[in-house]
Amino acid sequence: MNTKIIFILITNLLFCLSCSSPTTIDEEIIDITKSNASQLISFELEYKQSVFNCTISDNEVIMERNLPLEAKEIKVKAITISSKATSSLKIGSVLSISNDQKLMVTAEDGVTNNKYNLSFKVNEYTSIVDKHGLLQVNGNKIVDKNNEAVSLAGNSFFWTNNNWGGLKYYKASVVSWLKLDWNTTIVRAAMGVEDDGGYLNDKLANKNRLKIIVDAAIDQGLYVIIDWHSHHAEDNTDEAVEFFKEMATLYGNHPNIIYEIYNEPLDVSWDTTIKPYAETVISAIRAIDPDNIIVVGTPEWSQKVDEAANNPITSSENIAYTLHFYSVHHKQWLRDKAKAAMDKGIALFVTEWGTIGYTQNDPETASWMKWCKDNNLSHCSWAVNDKVEEWSIVKEGANSNGSWIDDKLTESGKLTRSINRKWQE
Predict the structure, then answer these.
(1) pLDDT tens digits for 75-106?
(2) Choosing from 108, 234, 307, 352, which is the catalytic residue?
(3) Which one from 234, 264, 307, 411 is the annotated catalytic residue?
(4) 384 vs 292, 353, 367, 402, CA distance in Å?
């Protein structure tokens, strides 16, 4: 190539360069080799060891459940963002509840960003009892202080019996944890009676365990069922009268209290066995406590509610009747029977129920929960325990003080926690 041609090529190159717009010092240079992804993928908050999951919709971060009214601060538990991006909030950042918060995710390129709004959801009431007050029976419904139908979701503790394993969870800290982490609004203290290690063998120990739960529920503003957990209560009527007179004297002035005077009768007569027993115990309670709800068990493991509906107790007001179900055994036929009983005018209370167990895929439980919701029924799932059986909510060896992480929950525990958390929505 001759010298003239080389000169022309160099001249043209310099001319092209001179025609390009120069980059001034004020202009940003974006490195196109760096990512511009700036998405918030997941976000979790933590309050008193309870994890609050959040849903991300567009640029709004929405808490999936409410914080307690008394909450002032919450901290960032976990955050997932686009690869190589940075966030204005870090794990461990403490946020004030009183102000809505902003979160910015900036991409690796240092220029692209997304801004997210974080709004806190806080309860408008200090406790469920503060919200609803004394519960009453009105026809076939249980209603609150404003005469509005109430439906509660909670947990039944295991038998109080000595050496039966469940007593280690009879702690105030467990009640507190169920309220905070599970959104539990009612608990049930299941005091074993005639079985080995129960009340008839050791009155003081069993009664004291029950009182721990009752006192904790009152302190936490939860409703609480004092359960005479017996299959043969009619054989110990005098003992039941003595016990419930004591409970009514101690707790009858608290709107939290619900008396369950017979857990699960066997296949015995409603008319000649259960009803006479119940009327005797009810009379003793009403002499001291005129208005807290009393729940009465029904024949055949509290399933034959139709028999109670055919001959209800009329000697006292604010009486409800026990319905128990376990989704592995009890299907639409029992719901139909229970609905027919309610149509005759009695109020039902599901003081105990159980999932199919070992799986969260439980269509029958879903059907039962929809039915309970549609009919404004309250319910307590069985049971707060780590026994190796399908209905225990925690795995063997789980912390006896509460504060259970997800890995310590059984499949039944995960399912019932999900139900409780969403019940008041």
Answers:
(1) 999 999 999 999 999 999 999 998 889 999 99
(2) 352
(3) 264
(4) 25, 12, 23, 10
pLDDT classification of 16: cutoffs 50, 70, 90: very low
Phi, psi of 398 (to 5 degrees): -60, 150
Which residue's entry shows tokens 């209603």? 143
CA-CA distance, 253 to 251, in Å (whole number)?
6
CB 349 within 8 A of CB 323: yes
Q: Which amino acid, residue 177?
A: W
Told to judge if 70 belongs to the known catalytic residues of this protein, a careful annotator would answer no
**Residue 84, exposed/middle/buried by CB under 10 A (0-12, 13-18, 19+)?**
exposed
d(CA 408, CA 417): 13
Please indicate, yes or no, whether the overall pTM of this predicted structure exceeds 0.85.
Answer: yes
CA dist 413 and 152 (Å) reads 17
Amino acid at 112: T
Q: Which residues contact 111 (CB under 8 A, 6 or more apart)?
A: 28, 30, 36
